[in-house]
Amino acid sequence: xxxxxGPKCRKCRRFQASLCGKANCAINRKNxxxxxxxxxxxxxxxxxxxxxEKQKVRFAYGLMERQFRGVYNQASxxxxxxxxxxxxxxxxxxxxxxxxxxxxxxxxxxxxxxTHGLVSVDGNKLSVPSARLKxxxxxxxTERGKRSKYVEILKEEIASRDVSGWLSVDRESxxxxxVSLPGAGDWExxxxxxxIVENYSR
Length: 202
What we know:
By secondary structure, the chain is α+β, with helices and mostly antiparallel strands. 41% of the residues lie in helices and 8% in strands. The chain contains nine helices and five strands; from the N terminus they run ααααααβββααββα. It has helices at 8-15, 46-61, 65-76, 82-91, 94-100, 107-115, 143-146, 149-157, 193-200, and strands spanning 119-121, 124-125, 138-141, 167-170, 175-178. It has a five-stranded antiparallel β-sheet with strand order 2-1-3-5-4. α4 packs across α9.
């Protein structure tokens, strides 16, 4: 199955949660699922709700099912709670860290600037969005990235963006660093990792 490339806000409306990261997400204007209104309301089973919770996280981070299952399998082999391990591994992806640093407005945009070769890690260009970073690694723009019009726009926009506590950012030089591992509460409260574990444990 290919990656979903349709309207991002359609998924937000489908799952009744803002997953795209946009400030002007359509769910803020029309908090209704897409498509015709159902003639009667159907009760969602526990299994159905668990699937919804998994899909919310998968679409938010932009992973295909096979990729997501691979991350889950890795999280299940780590010590500690599988759900928290899963979310921590997702947060440590390069595209997500670029987004968390405020260097991109959404995860989709972060993925794009990474694949276009505009981001470097420890001074070396890295164009793999799924690359997992370690504590102490530094993120910046490549020389090509610094010359792009995107960086000029970003210098004006980054001042109003919040940065996660497990990261540090220099808004002047547009550089960031992973200073600690993400923990519970460092991701969106709309995600329920325990439901994902239950879904895969069925």
